[in-house]
Amino acid sequence: MEVYFDNSATTKVYDEVIDVVVKTMREDYGNPSSMHLKGLDAEHLVSKSAETISKVLKCLPEEIIFTSGGTESNNMAIIGTALAKKRTGKHIVVSSVEHASVSSVMQFLIREGYEVTYIPSDEHGIVSPEAFANAVREDTILVSCMHINNEIGSIMPIREIGRAVKAKNPNLFFHVDAIQSFGKIEAIPKNLGADLMSVSGHKIHGPKGSGFLYIKKGTLIRPIIYGGGQQKNMRSGTENVPAIAGLGVAVEKTFNNFEEKINHIKAVRDRLVNGLTAIDEVYTNSDIVNGAPHIASISFVGVRAEVMLHTLEDKGIYVSSGSACSSNKSKESAVLSAIGLDKKRLESTLRFSFGEDNTEEEVDYAIKTINELLPMLRHYVR
């Protein structure tokens, strides 16, 4: 039996997305900048996806810039606004539990002469609006915060953070990394107070190498890729039309029967968490009541995470140890450290993340398998 519980790393692409990607490659292969019919057909597909996304986000289609995914969207948002506003100030405020595609950009900007203030999280992995507001200064140009933490599923009080920082300094821009929240909880920029919002396609059953950045009209931002001036001069280079067309279909399908899908995902997750935490010295690090519906961070005390991960893999169960983008690195998770886990739990934590295709049967198989494996693994370690 194959059980895929690593949906926060990537999701299985919808069949309808595959169909539109293949059709676009075979039939609508024109360059969207070309003036002939083939080019117009390609341009229409790009525009159609922008309209689909804008309806979901309740924004203007021209406020959507297509990118290669979440990492590029985060880079574009942060570096682009930092460059555009550097004469106003060079101070940025960010949470201390960000994804590497944000935290690494901050390190780059520090080397370029910017000043970054990091806001610590509490024991639940949540950052406070008050702490953000207190850190904001007259020369603060950008505040950036993730919506859902990718490792433990904490939901940040984004709306309150947006209000608090704008009340302190109305001229700053507010960037939200919605890569784990879009398609899981409500993530409408206007409601969140976001000037910029990053989304990745492969987290919502779209193609890898697809994503977008919402840029509120009037936001000062410079491009970080230069060339032919595509996408309103914001992101030069011929658009990846098949991926963009696929992304549009993925967004549309994700929000069909949305509540029903999310309720199912949450029920599957809760079943797994309840089953596993009934086992001796197995703990959840996620807030199952108030956290994201699709993520469960679980510690199996007495067994190292990598050992557990590969043992489960041998049984056809796929999970991850933290963020997929950083899970091949040996350093301890900043998020798990921030929430105060002791060394035994830090070293034994796996992330289970769920999608609409997961079933109760898969959960029961995983619980049964782990129940059988844990005593043996713990005995072997000891």
Task: Put the structure in a nutshell.
The chain has 382 residues and is α/β, with parallel strands linked by helices. The chain is built from 13 helices and twelve strands.
What does this structure look like?
The protein is an alpha/beta fold. 41% of the residues lie in helices and 14% in strands. The chain is built from 13 helices and twelve strands. The protein has helices spanning 15-26, 37-57, 70-84, 100-111, 129-135, 158-168, 189-192, 241-254, 258-277, 305-314, 334-338, 343-346, 360-381; strands at 3-4, 64-67, 91-95, 115-119, 140-146, 173-177, 196-200, 211-215, 282-284, 295-300, 317-318, 349-353. Helix 1 (15-26) runs antiparallel to helix 8 (241-254) and helix 10 packs across helix 13 (360-381). It is globular. The two termini are 30 Å apart.
Q: What order do the helices and strands follow?
A: EHHEHEHEHEHEHEEHHEEHEHHEH
Contiguous runs where pLDDT drops below 50 for at least 5 residues? none
Helical content stands at 40-55%
- Strands of the widest sheet, in order across it, are 2-8-7-6-5-3-4
How much of the polypeptide forms β-strand, as a percent range? Answer: 5-15%
Number of helices: 13
Please render the helix and strand layout as text.
Blueprint: E1 3-4, H1 15-26, H2 37-57, E2 64-67, H3 70-84, E3 91-95, H4 100-111, E4 115-119, H5 129-135, E5 140-146, H6 158-168, E6 173-177, H7 189-192, E7 196-200, E8 211-215, H8 241-254, H9 258-277, E9 282-284, E10 295-300, H10 305-314, E11 317-318, H11 334-338, H12 343-346, E12 349-353, H13 360-381
Parallel strand pairs: 1-11, 3-4, 3-5, 5-6, 6-7
Antiparallel strand pairs: 2-8, 7-8, 9-10, 10-12
Helix pairs in contact: 1-8, 2-8, 3-4, 5-6, 9-13, 10-13
